[in-house]
Amino acid sequence: VSAAEFDRLIGHFESQKSAVPMAELLRFCMASAMRISEVCRLQWADLNKTAKTIIVRDRKHPRDRIGNDQLVPLLDATGFDAFAIIDRQPRGGTRIFPYNPKTVSKYVTDAVAELKLGDLHLHDIRHEAISRLFEAGYRIEQVALVSGHRDWGMLRRYTHVRATDLH
């Protein structure tokens, strides 16, 4: 997802009235590099405001489905501040973003079609966020901590190193 496409999506959702704060959700996806299913499971009880971290419960893994809890830093490195976005959310129930991930995905799919953004998907925001973490200078093991990738080899597809970038 390009910056222009992302801005168009944000603008679209800011102009819509909805019970789901889509612009905030998309900003948080870009800030955190989390999957939408992880975002929609985040709980207030797992937030450490002092350390600016959160526990992501049952993080996706190819073999282990339960018990993959991971402490993740809430960074300000992708153009959006993950901690600040969480801090702005209303405290109603136990979840920070109490929305159905399938609903969020459907809203994005519909907006992409309406805006004629081609083959853009919600998961592309995660890819862009991970790429931005690399561009911000984070090392592969640091990006893996944020993204939840256990196999660093999987993260290679997000790196776009050019010779000119090393100067």
Summed up, what is this model?
The protein is mainly alpha-helical and 167 residues long. 44% of the residues lie in helices and 6% in strands. It has a three-stranded antiparallel sheet with strand order 1-2-3, with no helix packed on it.
How would you sum up this structure, described in words?
The chain is mainly alpha-helical. Helices cover 44% and strands 6% of the residues. It contains eight helices and three strands, in the order αααβββααααα. The protein has a three-stranded antiparallel beta sheet with strand order 1-2-3, with no helix packed on it. β1 and β2 form a beta hairpin. The two termini are 26 Å apart.
Q: First CA to last CA: what distance? A: 26 Å
Sheet with most strands: strand arrangement? 1-2-3
* Biggest sheet details: 3 strands, antiparallel
Structural class: mainly alpha
Which stretches are low in confidence, meaning pLDDT under 50 for 5 or more residues running? none
Question: What general outline do the C-alpha atoms trace?
Answer: globular
List SSEs in N-to-C order. HHHEEEHHHHH
How many strand elements? 3
The Rg value, from CA coordinates, equals: 16 Å
The amount of beta strand, in percent, is: 5-15%
Provide the residue-averaged pLDDT.
90
Helix percentage range = 40-55%
